[in-house]
Amino acid sequence: MKRSFRTLFKSKAFRRRRRVLMRRRLLENPPSGTEIKLNPKHKVPYSRPLGRKTSKYVGVSYNRAMKKWKAQIYNGRDIHLGFHTCEINAALAYDRKCRELRGKTAVTNFD
Q1: Domain span at residue 90?
Q2: Lowest CB count within 10 Å: 74, 91, 92, 106, which one?
Q3: What is the pLDDT, as a whole number, of residue 50?
Q4: What does the DSSP assignment read for the chain?
Q5: Which residues pair with 70 in a beta bridge?
Q6: Whole-prediction pTM value?
């Protein structure tokens, strides 16, 4: 079903996304002589981080439901490498699989 611009413009998702972009633009380039105050509860003006990264390691993210670190790699499709109690163990699992799939040219977390 094709949606008209008017219908799209009125949707909640569009308005929410527009608000987030406007806030980011305002923070990046505030008008001269203005001071931007943020809510003390939030360190940033928008609630979601960019992307899905929750770890400093590539291929590792935190699963809140299981309270464990998840390792996965993309090779044409997502390959699940398991859940780990430690973030470093998940990063090592990613590195092992990355070397196996990509050989010497693999970019890993630990050299």
Answers
A1: 60-105
A2: 74
A3: 42
A4: -PPPHHHHHHSHHHHHHHHHHHHHHHHHSPPTT------TT-SSSSSSPSSS--SSSTTEEEETTTTEEEEEEESSSEEEEEEESSHHHHHHHHHHHHHHHHGGG---S--
A5: 61, 83
A6: 0.53
The tally of domains found in the chain comes to 2
Asked, for residue 74, whether it belongs to a domain, the answer is: yes
Separation of alpha carbons 51 and 49, rounded Å: 6
Q: What is the pLDDT of residue 5?
A: 60
Model pLDDT for residues 25-83, shown as the tens digit of each residue: 777 777 676 666 665 555 544 434 444 557 889 899 999 889 999 999 998 899 999 99
- The answer as to whether 54 is a domain residue is no
Amino acid letter at 68? K
